[in-house]
Design brief:
Blueprint (H helix, E strand, L loop, with lengths): L1 H4 L2 H10 L4 H21 L3 H9 L5 H25 L5 E12 L10 E12 L2 E9 L1 H17 L3 H10 L1
Antiparallel strand pairs: 1-2, 2-3
């Protein structure tokens, strides 16, 4: 509920019943929210969660309560985070065309190539199209950068990150 509504309600509650400053309660709620969301994102195990909160210096009873809170709510937190995540478009199709201007009135012998791309995307059952134009040298640079990024995904470091994201 805190993920959707924020920390305004607990702060208003603290002013009247807890006799604690609003700033202290707000920082505590934000810290707790951060701890639970990051732990849920990574789906860390019970021992890892206990190690994470052990360094905070809380009592054993509070550590057990935090662990139980995490275990009870991690699936719901992941569901909420998936709902809040931006829905990015996905690739559907690509059409391309190469146009070459060979001459003009002022320049009789020129070669000016232009690559036109029509990118079809799917987003929430809707199809959209984007038209892009570029010169071949920029397109080659873009291809090199994408191939370098794909090569980077094969490293052990990136594989570990992707594995932890699931």
């Amino acid at each position: 509920q805190l993920l959707r509504e924020g920390v305004k309600a607990p702060c208003a509650f603290s002013k009247g019943k807890l006799n604690i400053g609003v700033d202290a309660v707000q920082r505590a709620v934000e810290g707790l929210t951060y701890l639970l969301t990051e732990s849920s994102k990574l789906m860390i195990s019970e021992p890892d969660f206990q190690d994470s909160i052990h360094v905070l210096g809380f009592s054993d009873e509070l550590n057990k309560l935090l662990l139980q809170l995490y275990l009870d709510n991690r699936k719901e937190i992941r569901t909420i985070l998936n709902e809040l995540a931006p829905k990015l478009p996905s690739y559907h199709n690509l059409e391309w065309r190469l146009d070459v201007q060979l001459a003009s009135r002022s320049l009789r012998q020129q070669i000016k190539p232009v690559v036109t791309l029509k990118l079809h995307l799917n987003q929430n059952e809707d199809q959209t199209a984007r038209v892009l134009q570029t010169d071949p040298s920029t397109l080659l640079h873009l291809i090199q950068q994408l191939e370098q990024a794909l090569g980077e995904m094969k490293t052990n470091h990136c594989r570990r990150i992707v594995r932890n994201m699931k």
